[in-house]
What we know:
The protein is an all-alpha fold. It contains 14 helices and four strands. Helix 3 (36-61) packs across helix 9 (182-192).
Amino acid sequence: MSWNRIRHQILTYPLVPALVAMAVFFQAKSDVFLSKDNLTNVITQSAILIVVAMPLALVLLAGGVDLSLGSVTALGGVLAGKALVAGWNALVVLVLVLLVGAAIGLLHGSLVSRWDWSPLIVTFGSLTAFRGLSLAISPQADFNFGDAMREFGNGRLLGIPWLVITAAIVVLSTEVVSRKLPLGRHVNAIGVSERAAFISGIAVDRIRVSLYVATSMAATLGGFMFIARINSAPAGTLAQGLELDALTACLLGGIAFGGGRGSPTGALLGVLTLGVLQNGLQLLAVPNAWSMMAKGTVLALAAGLQVIVPRLQAMGASPEAA
Length: 322
């Protein structure tokens, strides 16, 4: 492999060397960081964010955005909690919350695509509206959702946490859509030029709606996973700030805010970067205030990478320049 090709891979996925550097640093400061139990803990803690961020990556690639994810996740968790406490079967509840997510995504996608409303304004409004709806449905947090939910939230299959298995299914599904199906190419084409995509025969509106449906369904699935893990559904705090974490992960992973550049793989690396950073700071007993500052610094870094990486690539870092 030529040096220029190596440079291209680094610029395509700059978080890989960053992850390695953080792993080396945190292991030097705490000898348990690279232990099997701790790494499993990192991935398990990141599972819900992975589920939410992967479909959001496709929305961003198509030039959209969804700021409502934290509140939609909370709504899914609250509704699931109410149904479970009422004695509903866990699988039936899962189907219910996915249908709720699909309806929310259909609303967002229709307003954005067919009514030409700003996705920023639509989903920001939903951020407040659905959080309020969650609080109205469940002023007091429900808890104790039964053995099946406890097993899903904290149990394992062949040593692998169920939450990690769920996240892996979402990752594989998103990667197949992005890399193997025509839909993936169409999503990128819409992000590069919506008008050109429309002229070439791509069903722009239908694809946009389907992406918002997938993203909201992932969010309500995340709510189901949340309450299974913590065995409680506090409407006011559940998944608070999740939308910013997901957006940060996507931007950090190299997905352009305006669409047309990046990949879901980058979003996955962004989630893992945030997970490693948070876990490492916890192991070092860093105060929460400093952890918040570190996360803000990472977001600023993500914004910087949006400018720096394309410029470096334009200076001849692609393999074709070899």
